[in-house]
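_Backbone structure tokens_
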Amino acid sequence: MAWIFLFVAGLLEVVWAFAMKLSNGFSKPVPSAVTIIAMIFSFALLALAMRSLPLGTAYTIWTGIGAVGAFIVGIVVLGEAVTPMRVLAAVLIVSGLLLMKLSSPA
């Protein structure tokens, strides 16, 4: 169950990062509220996952899901640039996540 909590927490990190972008520096109420609510739930699920997963594993995977997810949302939704270097960086992050998952005892 911890891995499910961690995965959903990572997805919520993508949600709050995107909503924060849309909030325009917290000047728009709805995206600002979505940011804060998604942050609370993301942190709560991360905390639940950390009950049984090592700190380094949980935090690395949580931030990795957020980073790669935000990268994908930036490209697909916001039209950000797709360059070979950015794609390589995302591939390296995903590789690190897979290695962290494979090396975790839980």
